[in-house]
Amino acid sequence: MKYLIILLLGVAVGAAIALGMLFYNPLTSQMALSPLVVSDRQQITLRYSAVAENSIVFTNDGESRVFPKPAKVLQLWEAPIKNTDTLVTILRDGRNETVGIGVKYSSRSERTRLLNGKALIDSTWYIYMPGQGSLLIEQSENHWAFLREIVIPAYWNSGNNWRGIWHGTITDGPGALGTGRVYGGSGRFSGLDSEAIETHTAKAYSADVGPVAMDGQLTIDLSVEVGELPDDEYAADAVTH
Amino acid sequence: MIGVQGQANSLPPGMEWPDDPLFSDVRAELFKLRNSRDAIVGVASRFVLSDAEFGDVIEWVLYLPARGSVFVRIQSQPVDGARRMGELSAGTREFSSLRGRVSERWIAETSESEKVMAGRIELLMSFVSDKDYVLDEEMPE
Question: Which residue among A96, B7, B63, B75 has the highest number of C-beta atoms inside a 10 angstrom radius?
Answer without folding.
Answer: B63
